[in-house]
TrEMBL record:
<dbReference type="GO" id="GO:0000271">
    <property type="term" value="P:polysaccharide biosynthetic process"/>
</dbReference>
<dbReference type="GO" id="GO:0008483">
    <property type="term" value="F:transaminase activity"/>
</dbReference>
<keyword id="KW-0663">Pyridoxal phosphate</keyword>
<dbReference type="InterPro" id="IPR015422">
    <property type="entry name" value="PyrdxlP-dep_Trfase_small"/>
</dbReference>
<feature type="active site" description="Proton acceptor">
    <location>
        <position position="181"/>
    </location>
</feature>
<dbReference type="InterPro" id="IPR015421">
    <property type="entry name" value="PyrdxlP-dep_Trfase_major"/>
</dbReference>
<dbReference type="InterPro" id="IPR000653">
    <property type="entry name" value="DegT/StrS_aminotransferase"/>
</dbReference>
<dbReference type="Pfam" id="PF01041">
    <property type="entry name" value="DegT_DnrJ_EryC1"/>
</dbReference>
<protein>
    <submittedName>
        <fullName>Aminotransferase class V-fold PLP-dependent enzyme</fullName>
    </submittedName>
</protein>
<keyword id="KW-0032">Aminotransferase</keyword>
<dbReference type="InterPro" id="IPR015424">
    <property type="entry name" value="PyrdxlP-dep_Trfase"/>
</dbReference>
<keyword id="KW-0808">Transferase</keyword>
<dbReference type="GO" id="GO:0030170">
    <property type="term" value="F:pyridoxal phosphate binding"/>
</dbReference>
<comment type="similarity">
    <text>Belongs to the DegT/DnrJ/EryC1 family.</text>
</comment>
<feature type="modified residue" description="N6-(pyridoxal phosphate)lysine">
    <location>
        <position position="181"/>
    </location>
</feature>
């Protein structure tokens, strides 16, 4: 079965992990510090990032660092993995959905602006499939309301918009390093932010609120610590951070190969009116995490089954979040966000990962073309 996504692990990755296993630190050690500096540098920021145990933990940590409270509102997209929304709900925040742009599937700035209220604390955009959000427009929407822009960049590390790296486009950005993502630490994620105080709150949140201040230790003893805020243990181990640092060395090659695969798919489907290839706006250099093909004749389920029957493990990304039962209690119903719903109804994610061969891509193209009668 040809998977829709998978990790790319080579000898250098294995050696990096083994080196840590043979050392003194398995967690909270120098490999984590190195990896956090490398992620911040890739994001175009000085200092360090805050590494965590998953992309979901990154979102939870970011919302915690924003100091959300009950009644705050988060404006976000329904076309995402549900953690973008549900992680804010743990703080009592209300989720307010807004529709997406038809071409990219990203949060539409005009729709987001219409959803803003006096209680909006953040606008959370998602780089769907790896295409960066319209950060300038969404920043204006958020900042005009006195809110922050959060960029859920689980799909898009190493992407850029108008030459600026993902991570420097929003007030707060979260990454995911799950095996199918653009680089992996097995499980893992990270938070970057422009504001040093917010980033420090993120660091405390992911470390159980545990503080060891040198001045206080000098006064009370080297064992002294304090807990002044609530947090969770989301600390990324050194063994996984070492894998991440090794993967970062190959990230440019990963990006180039993902673009080659995207280009090959695009060329293979260019003459078929019933198929819609991913939107790509001027100024954006996506890190293609997914290849979201859309079939416009209502036969997505049949195409899905056809490809699965032929050993192609395609996926659908995503069921719109507002249609999940947990949001029915808030009054969300089908038809409320027609662009996102239409996108989801037509979307099928074809195999996309760096080790995919041209022959494998061509096989997928041929199977899709055969299905639509092209």
């Amino acid at each position: 079965m040809l998977p829709y996504g998978r990790q790319s692990i080579d000898r250098s990755d294995i050696d990096a992990v083994v080196s840590v296993l043979q050392g003194d630190w398995l967690t909270t050690g120098p490999a984590v510090d190195t990896f956090e500096r490398e992620i911040a540098s890739l994001a175009g920021l000085s200092g360090q990032s805050v590494s965590v145990t998953s992309g979901t933990a990154a979102l939870h940590t970011a919302y915690g660092a924003m100091q959300l409270k009950p009644g705050d509102e988060i404006v976000t997209t329904p076309l995402t993995f549900f953690a973008t929304a549900t992680c804010a709900m743990w703080f009592g925040a209300k989720i307010v959905f807004a529709d997406v742009s038809e071409d990219t599937g990203n949060l539409d700035p005009e729709a987001a602006a219409s959803a803003i209220t006096s209680r909006t604390r953040a606008v959370a955009g998602v780089d769907y499939a790896g295409h960066p959000i319209d950060a300038p427009a969404l920043s204006k929407v958020a900042h005009d309301a006195g809110a922050l822009l959060l960029e859920d960049a689980a799909h898009s590390i190493a992407g850029t918009l108008d030459g600026m790296p993902v991570g420097s486009l929003a007030d707060v950005t979260t990454f995911s390093f799950f095996p199918t993502k653009n680089l992996t630490t097995a499980e893992g994620g990270a938070v970057v932010a422009r504001d040093a105080d917010l980033l420090e709150r993120a660091r405390l949140f992911k470390s159980i609120g545990y503080e060891r201040v040198p001045e206080q230790m000098a006064e009370h003893g080297g064992w002294y610590y304090e807990v002044n805020s609530l947090g969770l243990n989301y600390r990324l181990p050194d063994v996984l951070a070492a894998l991440g640092s090794s993967q970062l060395k190959r990230l440019p090659a990963f990006k180039a190969r993902r673009q080659e695969i995207t280009d090959r798919y695009n060329a293979g489907f260019a003459d078929i009116d019933v198929l819609r290839t991913p939107g790509h706006r001027a100024g954006a250099s996506p890190m293609w995490h997914l290849y979201p093909l859309r079939i416009l004749d209502g036969r997505r389920r049949a195409l899905f089954d056809h490809l699965r029957a032929n050993e192609i493990a395609v996926q659908v990304n995503y069921i719109p979040v507002h249609l999940q039962p947990i949001f029915a209690e808030q009054g969300y119903r089908p038809g409320m966000f027609p662009v996102a719903e239409a996108y989801s109804d037509a979307e099928i994610s074809l195999p996309m990962y760096p080790d995919l061969t041209d022959d494998q891509v061509d096989r997928v193209i041929d199977l899709v073309r055969t299905f639509v009668g092209a």
